[in-house]
Amino acid sequence: MSPADPKLPLFQDADETVAAIHQGEVDAVVVMRALEGPQIILLQGAEEPYRVLVERMSDGALTADPHGVILYVNDRLCEQTGYPSAGLVGRSLPSLFEGGPPNLVPEVTVEASLLRNTGEAMPVAVWSRPISIANSTATLVRLTDLSIHRRAEQIAAAERFARSVLEQANEAVVVLSPDGHITHASLRAEQLARQPPVGCTFSEAFQLEAQATEEAETLARFSSESLDALLATRPFHGVEVKLRGEANAKFTFLLSAGPLIDENKTNVGSIVTLTDITERKRAEEAQTTLVAELNHRVKNILAIVQSVAAQTMRSSVSLENFADAFTGRLKALATAHDILTQTRWIGIGLGELLGAVLAPYRSPAEGRISISGPPILLPAHAVVPLSMVLHEMTTNAAKYGALSTRQGRIEITWQVTGGIEKSIELVWLERGGRKVKAAAPTGFGTKLIDHVISHDLDGNTKLDFDPDGVRWTIAIPLRGLAGGGAAASGAATA
Questions:
Q1: Per-residue pLDDT for 37 more than 60?
Q2: Facing residues of 172 across strands?
Q3: From its phi and psi, is residue 367 left (phi > 0), alpha (psi between -120 and 50) or beta?
Q4: Does an H or E element contain 302, and which?
Q5: Do 128 and 155 reside in the same domain of the chain?
Q6: Mean pLDDT of the chain
């Protein structure tokens, strides 16, 4: 027994006493109380020394008297708090906890925050029960470190969160460890991989075919091993790649990689994404084609306008005459392009085109212009030249032919003729206009009609000067309307 000197302050010899207890030199302690006087605390249990039981605990443990003064602590509690035993024995139990003492209920576990000597708080589970030591009562308190448990819960929660994110991802997403092995993969990534991806290196699961970009060529120069390490350690953004294999050959992806950093700012791997840009690439290619086609059409229109302007100027006797003729021809061009815009450059029926060109001269009440024939779908590239031809024929009729008198009439008919080499034969017949004389000198309008039909549509024209009115016969082979031909489109009769 090692009594404490009653003349010394309470716990002045705590260091020596605790050391003696740990070394097994004593099995009881005499504690001085201001009111009760000296008390002897026995440390000997029924079967083995109390100190041996407490020291064997993996949790922190202490013994407190009925007043909450700490009488004894084990080594594990010293580790948890960072204090030596002398810094704990003699302190009040509530002083160990942040925010005040926990509400201790015998043999019920409660949670609290144990203060460390660094000022930080450690989450602990506190369990207590009363014990009898000699003729006195005390309380055994056990403190279980919850920080590891909390950390495990946080890791599990982070794992569940990561999995839920990957499950919702529409793109191929994989998580790489620092050595380049896949630890997580989204459903899309599993579909694209050559084998189950988790546990494989990136290069084993996804074999890349780099595209012709500087950064992609850099990737292509690395071996599989160095590529895996590169993706796990170096950020990449938007490298265009394809995956080998017939199943993935039609897809194009953007490869991106970014580091994964933990709370200690340590690189613990990377996230690699393969973003499907197949539709975007198709849209870009379509846009490139449309821009090239638009550029070609604009150049063609400018060439037509330039040619029409030059020819109209040479055939005009005055500035006013030039202005009228040139303006009319530009309107014909505009009409053709309006039609194509409305049909989204798919084409238009021959009857519909005739109706649009002749609309200013048609009156349902008068019935001066009749249009009839089977449905013929004109492809987009044939609409502009044929619109110019019909404009010239209408202009001639308005100036010199059937539309220059009130009694004049125009009958327009067409049919598909021939055997294997089919053609469209259109007849423009004028009646009731001015008397037609013998063939007059050929003007620019007639030359324009012949030129467009022969060069742009690979056809031919025939102009007959009947006394009752002119007769135009235009033959256009269906091969000259590449993509056109007889189809159920366009008005059969107008």
A1: no
A2: 274
A3: left
A4: helix 278-315
A5: no
A6: 75
Task: Report which of residues 115 and 486 the model is more confident about.
Answer: 115
pLDDT computed for residue 270 by the predictor? 84
Give the residue numbers spanning the domain of 107: 14-145
Strand partners, 212: none
Name the nearest CA neighbour of 202 among 166, 221, 236, 226.
Answer: 226
CB atoms within 10 A of CB 353: 24
- Asked if residue 407 and residue 434 are part of one domain, the reply reads yes
Q: What is the DSSP letter of 79?
A: H
Identify whether residues 127 and 159 lie together within a single domain.
Answer: no
Residue 19 lies in a domain: yes
Domain boundary among 253, 276, 299: 276
- pTM value > 0.85: no
**Is the same domain home to 115 and 212?**
no
The single-letter code of the amino acid at 31 is: V
Position 103 scores a pLDDT of 83
Comparing C-alpha atoms, which of 72, 46, 68 is closest to residue 60?
72
With b meaning 16 or more CB within 10 Å and e meaning fewer, what string describes 261-297?
eeeeeeeebbbbbbebbeeeeeeeeeeeeeeeeeeeb
CB 120 within 8 A of CB 138: no
Q: Torsions phi, psi of 62, nearest 5?
A: -150, 160
pLDDT of residue 12: 39
Per-residue DSSP letter, 402: G
Question: What pLDDT, on the 0 to 100 scale, is given for residue 88?
Answer: 93
pLDDT tens digits, 268-312: 788 888 888 888 888 888 888 777 766 766 666 666 566 567 656
Query: Token pair for residue 117?
Result: 């000597």
Distance CA 319, CA 289 (A): 41
Asked if 160 and 134 sit in the same domain, the reply is no
User: Residue 280: which residues within 8 A CB-CB, separation 6 or more?
Assistant: none
> 402 falls in which pLDDT band (50, 70, 90)?
confident
Residue 185: inside a domain: yes
Encoded tokens for 102: 């926990």
Both tokens of 196, joined, read 């189950």
Q: Is the dihedral of CA 42, 44, 46, 49 positive or negative?
A: positive
Give the closest residue to 191 by CA, choosing from 209, 216, 173.
Answer: 173
Count of CB atoms within 10 A of residue 406's CB? 8
Backbone torsions φ then ψ of 130, nearest 5 degrees: -75, 145
Q: Please tell me the predicted confidence (pLDDT) of residue 81.
A: 92
Our measurement of the distance from residue 304's CA atom to the centroid of its chain's CA atoms, rounded to an integer in Å, reads 44
d(CA 198, CA 194): 12
- 66 within a domain of the structure (yes/no): yes
* Six token digits for residue 460: 């031919």
